Automatic annotation (TrEMBL):
The lineage of its organism: Bacteria, Pseudomonadati, Pseudomonadota, Betaproteobacteria, Neisseriales. Residues 1-22 form the signal peptide. The keyword Signal applies. Residues 166-189 form the Ice-binding protein C-terminal domain. InterPro entries: Ice-binding_C. Keywords: Signal. It comes from the Bacteria. This is PEP-CTERM sorting domain-containing protein. The keyword tRNA processing does not apply.
Amino acid sequence: MTEMKKTLLALALCASAGASNAAFTTVYSDVTSHWSDNSFVLELNNLPTTGLVNLGFDLNIIGSWDGNNGWGPDRFNVKVNDSLVFSEVFDHFGADTSFHPVAGSVIQQGSGWGTSIYNMSIQPTFQNLLVTGGKLKVEWFANGPIWQGGSDESFAVSNISVAVAPVPEPETYALMGLGLVGLLAARRRKHK
């Protein structure tokens, strides 16, 4: 085998090792979930063992969310794999709120007993979430000391998307390193 072929083979091994997981992304938009007791749960299995997830959804805040006034605070929360990653106070009556949407994420701004709609996919909180064990569980729920869920306060989650990008395993880096060693060895022989 000529030196050029050896070098090209080493480069190909190195490139394939580095790209084995890096370019893989899956978007799940047709999901199975359930709703009960003011919560909505999504569970995905058979994901890459370790991966980064970008979670996207539209959040509909419906009815008389009271912010931090005497009838609140009314909180919307998100747990990912049982860890609370988002807990913000929403308001439709001009009271104090803790949620400050990212520019461009407000689809519709409601007031009083109206509906506000937010594109949560661009909120930094829902980007690059680390998932291990090949499973993802997302729970959306609302609460507060005087939460009136079902009567005049509610929420909806729509347009759910989950993009998963696997994190390369140590074996991938070892294979890439082996390719680099082969490349260096071929180059060294050429210069002798």
